[in-house]
Amino acid sequence: MPTLTAPAIHLPPDDSGRRGTRRVTSYDVANVAGVSQSAVSRCFKPGASVSKATYQRVMQAARELDYIPNAAARSLCTRRSNLVAVILWEQAILSHPGIVTELTQQFARRGMRAVLFTLASEADIDGTLAALWQHQVDGAIVAARLGEAHIAEFTRRALPFLLFNRPAGHEVNAVACDHYAAARTLAARLASAGHKRFALVSGPADSSVAQERLRGVCERLAELGLPRPLVVAGNFDYASGARAMREIRARSEALPDVVVCTNDMMAIGCIDTARTEFGLSVPCDLSVTGFDGSASSGWLSYNLTTMRLPIAEMALAAAEMFAGLMAGGAAPQQRLFSPVVVDGTTARLGPAA
Amino acid sequence: MPTLTAPAIHLPPDDSGRRGTRRVTSYDVANVAGVSQSAVSRCFKPGASVSKATYQRVMQAARELDYIPNAAARSLCTRRSNLVAVILWEQAILSHPGIVTELTQQFARRGMRAVLFTLASEADIDGTLAALWQHQVDGAIVAARLGEAHIAEFTRRALPFLLFNRPAGHEVNAVACDHYAAARTLAARLASAGHKRFALVSGPADSSVAQERLRGVCERLAELGLPRPLVVAGNFDYASGARAMREIRARSEALPDVVVCTNDMMAIGCIDTARTEFGLSVPCDLSVTGFDGSASSGWLSYNLTTMRLPIAEMALAAAEMFAGLMAGGAAPQQRLFSPVVVDGTTARLGPAA
DNA sequence: TTGTAGGCGTTATCAC
DNA sequence: GTGATAACGCCTACAA
What we know:
The structure is a homodimer. By secondary structure, chain A is an alpha/beta fold. Chain A has helices at 26-33, 37-43, 52-65, 71-78, 90-95, 97-109, 125-134, 148-156, 179-192, 208-223, 238-251, 264-276, 311-327, and strands spanning 83-89, 113-119, 139-143, 161-164, 173-177, 198-201, 230-232, 258-261, 287-289, 306-308, 334-337, 340-342. The first copy, chain A, has 13 helices and twelve strands. In chain A, the strands form three sheets. A six-stranded parallel sheet of chain A has the order 2-1-3-4-5-11, with helices on both faces. In chain A, strands 7-6-8-9 form a four-stranded parallel sheet. In chain A, strands 10-12 form a two-stranded antiparallel ribbon. Chains A and B meet through helix 4, helix 5, helix 6, strand 2 and helix 7 of A and helix 4, helix 5, helix 6, strand 2 and helix 7 of B. Chain A binds a DNA duplex through helix 2 and helix 4.
């Protein structure tokens, strides 16, 4: 049995001359503990077979030397890094900061870390993915538009991924929200409350979420035989909501009954402008609705009538689904959530028609 | 000169039998290109010396095989992962989502990626740091309270780090904001506009930022000989601002002249409650001020008088400073920014006194 | 400029 | 249960 004073045959006695001080490796621990390097390795692997005595000697030595396993080296052998790429559109972070906090915390709970990629626009994906492949992430959560080619590349690399809050075909994992159905519901309930002339504020052209919301409202209105809505352009931020309100007022001789915005931020911009610049009362003179259920939509000044996305639940579902993907690939599944009607005070809602 | 049909001596001809398909390595590329592995390696290193012919052959082969260098392996040799840990308090993300987007994009521009750690409370740091040491991050940006022991551990591990928007001693790198001075300025300008009786809404007990802001206001008021302000507790969110307003009204027979909140979110909660529940006019019946310059503070409904943090500039500075730390350790430096007075309409400001 | 050989720190395999 | 030994995929002298 090796003694505690056995020479450190594997290692130079001190600094190896590289930049910085030499790191403490499992060999160092092995030498101090008087065991083999593989014994040390096993002690740091959850379900390994080590005798109690060995385990304690190793852990004692590890503590003395302040040894911490090197994740890069481990990743090289195991092909697992415990890193998950999270790809988010910048706008998504700004309107739902909770996505970031919920996802990272859910992952942390499972021993995983999030590497964050933010896109200035949904189109920037290509460069981001290139960076992704190098870092050995175990998978990705993508809240951005992913083309067929991108999806194919993920599967070709056998890299698990799931789409978050984005429409998906049946072949991919996804945690999503049925924006289209929600938009139809909203349109119907607004109509049944007596709103007839609709104005719509669209979102950024490359946002599929905005498009679905828009399409849902338009189609439902058409089915109900209501006049074609006035559609003005927005890009999801406050200022564009304010601009949209001005444009709506300028372009229509009579105000519409309701302005349906494809997100909350724009709805708030609309309301502020209607109230402040035009002296209108919401909802007496004009109804306004949003989409998202962001924190500010609930503030007393607005109490917005909107469709709330269950972000926390979705983040939890995403983390769970991802853990499942890691454990063993089941068939692609989709978990679909429904936005929740928030019956605020900026628009009257009738029963679903 | 080796021919293109040279046998792949380093590699088994096909799948090695491990789980998943074998990855494409630089040896594969070398074989196809008919060069040595090190030649391939050099081609992927920015400033290496490779002949044009070799470079093109290698790149052609890499493209055919769809080869991408393995960051984990590279990290093992170079001791650089191009990963930066970003440690943020959850509250910071919710009130300044821009921190996340700006930091990640600035890093991306420099070829680095952010590994995000979010803390539910500033005290959770210990567990987070333990996770940090394993992943071979090149350094960390910390927007959370860091004790002396933590700082010592960073330096002991020779891991570059910088504090973001947190007070720091002279021995550590930091990008910070002078909340104390800003708070003094705000107090002085409110006083010189005639406000005499102050109420203050504090922040979470473990937030150093909130404490500095509170201290700055209190001390300046004392210096100006004004009566001691009424301090009520808040925790930085909207609801606590609303509660604070109710408490202020309940605890004072006459309303104060101004309610100084230690952040914008609470100021907005105050204003909404004052207007909606108590029918007060801000600023006619009551002035309210915030701190942060968050997006919503500029909305028409509020147009908050506040002190804006130059988050984007600070993020840029942080990324730059971090790049500097990577390049070569200069002496610890601090870059101090000053919050900018936003002369909104929720409180009158006089000249600095 | 190019190739050879050794190392980075760990896990996995297989005898013992 | 334990210890040699071979990967893992790349970088970096060093020699040619």
